User: Fold this.
Amino acid sequence: MIMLACALDRADLPSRQLRRRMMDAPRLAWLFDIDGTILLTEGASREAFSHALHLRHGLTDNLRDIRFDGRTEPLILADIAAKHGLDFSNGEEAEFWNAVFDRMRQILKAPRGRLLPGAEALIRRVGGEPGWVMGLLTGNMTEMARIKLARFGLGEDFAFGAFGEQAENREALARIVVGKVGLDYGIPPLRCIVIGDTEHDVSCARSAGARAVAVATGTRTRAELAALEPDLLLDDLSDPAALLDFARSIEG
Assistant:
């Protein structure tokens, strides 16, 4: 897969997290998934891929048989390519991604999409806590993540992240970002909290030696998530007391 963009980082976002970095000794890192955890796009991502497929290759497909949730977007594109026998070359993949992003900017506008219960309040709460840093761990391409967060005014709240184009799967992405947290902030894996809504979020947290918090706001039921034995399981983020208590119990 062609690497189209780097992670959101110092040069990309004048984040509140980075402005605080010089004042507080970091003790804990929060790593948020986006889709199904922070927000829902109400099918906009699938529609954007479908539009790009038609625009670039003349193919009509609603992509309902392609699994999007919990996966990296390059893997999603690989499934689409395999289904239709596409062989990207000569810059065609970059052009496809640009078509996806352009369409997403057009369609992900109010009133489409919504924040999930308690997500924004939790992000603001975590962002205001001395010694806590906050990043993203998502299968979204960097630009797709930027578009989604901008829709809800959350683009400045995250200091760093790991994104779909940086690794083949979520486990590798988790190891990348947890390693970055260790290098940049001196925070060990066991003081990194991964928050997500699928089995992929739990497994990637385990792979990186981090804590796993599962929230049943996506396509997985509470029972399905409970079977994975996350460190903490929540119905949603509307009452963050248990999550904040858990965070304080491990921050050291």
